[in-house]
Design brief:
There is one protein chain. Helix 3 packs across helix 5. 12% of the residues are buried. Among the domains are: 52 residues; 101 residues, 2-Layer Sandwich (Tetrahydropterin Synthase, Chain A). The longest helix is centred in the middle third of the chain and has 43 residues. By secondary structure, the chain is of the alpha+beta class. The chain starts with a helix and ends in a 15-residue tail after the last helix. The chain contains nine helices and eight strands. The strands form three sheets. The chain has a three-stranded antiparallel sheet. A three-stranded antiparallel sheet has the order 6-7-8. Strands 1-4 form a two-stranded antiparallel sheet.
């Protein structure tokens, strides 16, 4: 009789020990008793009757999932390869077990299809320059669809965008042209500022004539400091203004008729001989006619 009691006690102890489950702090246990959902166990020791019940462990930690590279055709018909990273965690373990067969696989497939559909509606420039906006759109769509599975999407980040070689060269030429345009604009702005400063300096020098002389002396000092044998002395244009005015007056004054021309000798004084001597003499030899007979 004692042996039967000990045997029964051993079987009961073994059954109890086999029914004990230990859950970590980051785990939750979804319990099913005779195939029906009963409760969700928290971390620590949980009793799950063997044969009659079973428990599905679900991790509550953030899952980092790498989305494989997808061949995407953007809105402006450019073929690129894009891969991304998905961050999500389970918020309701019962829904993650009951509503979907494998929430990890389902979330991965949903992320791939959403990536293809969203990137097909954006242009390449928007994808390269405004990734944050595209990431927010992806996160919103995936989070809405996985909410029924008890999954919360933390973030979606586009990791890499692979462009064809021809498109890379085209973007490089575009960037070079943009840099040249900026350089020309900056140079033009510098010329404008320099001209404005020179005009202001000219007005100040004009208001104070002595400052021009001081500037000249400073320039001479700078030239002498370089051990040059040539020194330039600028002369003000005011010294020649009187000569210029006199020349202008002489040109603008009216000239009487016949003034300034050499006198013409009278015809009576020249006579026929003098007129012949005054004209250029030209000797013309006519062709000799053959004599008849």
């Amino acid at each position: 009789m004692m042996q039967i009691v000990l045997l029964a006690g051993g079987v009961i102890a073994a059954y109890i020990l086999s029914s004990i489950r230990i859950l970590n702090q980051y785990e939750r246990g979804v319990e099913f008793f005779l195939g029906r959902y009963t409760s969700t166990k928290g971390p620590g020791v949980a009793f799950v009757p063997t044969i009659l019940a079973r428990m599905k462990r679900v991790s509550m930690r953030v899952v980092v999932m790498d989305i494989p590279a997808q061949d995407v055709i953007t809105r402006d018909n450019i073929s690129v390869k894009v891969n991304a990273v998905l961050y999500f965690r389970v918020t309701d373990p019962s829904l993650a077990v009951i509503e979907v067969q494998d929430y990890l696989y389902a979330t991965a497939q949903l992320a791939q299809t959403t990536l293809l559909s969203v990137l097909g509606q954006v242009e390449l420039d928007e994808l390269l320059a405004d990734r944050r906006k595209v990431n927010d759109i992806l996160k919103q769509i995936i989070d809405e669809r996985t909410d029924f599975w008890g999954i919360e999407v933390s973030a979606v980040e586009i990791k890499d965008v692979l462009l064809p070689d021809s498109m890379r060269r085209a973007i490089a030429r575009q960037a070079e042209a943009e840099r040249e345009r900026r350089a020309k604009v900056i140079s033009a702005q510098g010329e404008l500022q320099a001209s404005e400063t020179l005009a202001q300096a000219a007005r100040m020098l004009q208001s104070q004539p002595a400052s021009l002389q001081l500037r000249y002396l400073q320039t001479v000092t700078e030239i002498a400091a370089e051990n040059n044998s040539t020194t330039i002395f600028p002369l003000p244009m005011d010294l020649f203004s009187a000569f210029f005015m006199k020349a202008d007056n002489s040109v603008a004054a009216p000239t009487p008729e016949g003034a300034g021309l050499p006198p013409v000798p009278a015809a009576s004084a020249l006579g026929m001989g003098g007129l012949a001597n005054a004209l250029p003499q030209i000797n013309i030899e006519g062709a000799k006619k053959p004599s008849g007979g």
